[in-house]
Amino acid sequence: MVEFLTTGDILMEDKRISKAVIARLPRYYRYLGEISEEGIERISSKELSVRMKVTASQIRQDLNNFGGFGQQGYGYNVKYLYNEIGKILGIDRQHNLIVIGAGNLGNALTNYTNFEKRGFVIKAMFDVKPQLIGKEIRKVKIYHLDTLEDYISKHQIQIAVLSIPKNEAIAVAKRLVNAGIKAILNFAHTDLEVPEDVIVENVHLSDFLMKLSYRVSSLTENQ
Ligand SMILES: NC(=O)c1ccc[n+]([C@@H]2O[C@H](COP(=O)([O-])OP(=O)(O)OC[C@H]3O[C@@H](n4cnc5c(N)ncnc54)[C@H](O)[C@@H]3O)[C@@H](O)[C@H]2O)c1
Fold first, then answer.
1. Which of 9, 112, 141, 155 to pair with 103, CA 20 to 30 A apart?
2. What ipTM was estimated for this complex?
3. Which domains does the chain have, with CATH numbers?
């Protein structure tokens, strides 16, 4: 039988891994990293479930997708599982990023050193404001947007972060795609139109705030 993948699913050893499972992997990765730092070498699905506040069967189901991580009566080898999930997520290797828009948000992202610990290295920033060109933020140079395609063709850039006004984002995203970028982290409040093989993750903090607002409002209404 032919199996069809929906966008975002991955195929591992002829097995379809759902988007939902993939979306949970960063959380497993984070928890296992912390557990490993505590010096714990192995952990049962039950213990992990208590820490992560998900059911043990969910954990077993999720991790069984990748095979061979756990052993009956032994539990999971924390370091091994951590490394394997890291490999699946592709963070066992370096990813080079560029940030488009060197304003408040672009600065904050570039100043955040923890991305590098996960292998995400910001190589350059781009802007259109003449007074910003040539400046550096944590040794990351700001280039003019005119040099975008040239820079991408000369450096191995996989991911672009868009932190520019929304009315500029669609045009810049098109240029990024034409220059070969395959993944965009989009902070601009607009939907991007990209080909199917380009991955876009939208981060709209205001959406989270609206969700919180809804929850807070319903709490106060029920009081
Ligand atoms: N998604 C979120 O949760 C979230 C949160 C904060 C801000 N934002 C959005 O992110 C964007 C940036 O916010 P900010 O506070 O950093 O704004 P900002 O005004 O401080 O910075 C924007 C920068 O983009 C530059 N720019 C404008 N057009 C450009 C182009 N075509 N190419 C390259 N650079 C260009 C500007 O010169 C400026 O330096 C805005 O669209 C804002 O709405 C989103």
1. 155
2. 0.96
3. 10-89 (1.10.10.10), 95-207 (3.40.50.720)
82-132: pLDDT as tens digits:
998 988 888 888 999 999 999 999 999 999 988 888 889 999 999 999 999
170 CB less than 6 Å from ligand 1?
Answer: no
For residue 104 and ligand 1, the question of a CB distance below 6 A is answered with: yes
Cα(164) to ligand 1 centroid in Å equals 3
To the question of whether residue 167 is assigned a binding role by annotation, the answer is no
Contact 130, 148 (CB under 8 A): no
Distance separating alpha carbons of residues 214 and 211, to the nearest angstrom: 5
Judged by phi (left if over 0) then psi (alpha if -120 to 50, else beta), residue 73 lies in left
Q: Which of 27, 46, 29, 45 is nearest to 37 (CA)?
A: 29
For residue 211, the CA-to-ligand 1 centroid distance in Å is 23
* Token couple for 184: 């965009």
Strand (E) positions, 164-213?
183-186, 199-202
Q: Is the CB of 147 under 6 A from ligand 1?
A: no
Position of tokens 């890291």? Answer: 86
Would the pTM count as exceeding 0.95? Answer: no
